[in-house]
Amino acid sequence: MSSLTRAVASSPGEGLHTRAFGTYLIRFTAAVTGGGMGLFEMNLPAGEGPPLHVHEREDEFFRVLSGRFSFRCGKDAVELGEGGCILLPRRVPHAFLALGEGENRLMCMVTPGGFEGFFADVDREQPSTPEAMAALAARYGVAFLPPEKDRQGAA
């Protein structure tokens, strides 16, 4: 990881637009931030969100930009609306779900950076099987937990 030596800015709507589990706008990549972080926005339809999963490499900070979301992390669960924030630590199983009927937008910062590339890879590679998706996620240090574990809750 290198040091960031200058300001980095992103105008509204500026960044890499991708489609993966909704629409994503990647604002800052690890390459731009010296590896320190990645920053992206996501817009998810109601009822959508990732299954229970674990990140080995990065912590995730979320801020709800619009709509409403439920978050699970370990044994904790919380619902957040516009302006709400949550920090999810690496190596702890977590999931989230868009609840609002209208627009459901999140901003996510990952530290260190790098995971933001996952969404561009999903958009480009279009993995068509759970095995292909799991292999792509593994390249980013992410593991999806089996549905049985999801039903039992994160332990």
TrEMBL record:
Residues 41-109 form the Cupin type-2 domain. InterPro entries: Cupin_2 (IPR013096), QDO-like (IPR053146), RmlC-like_jellyroll (IPR014710), RmlC_Cupin_sf (IPR011051). Gene3D superfamilies: Jelly Rolls. It holds the Pfam family Cupin_2. SUPFAM superfamilies: RmlC-like cupins (SSF51182). Coiled coil: none annotated. This is Cupin domain-containing protein.
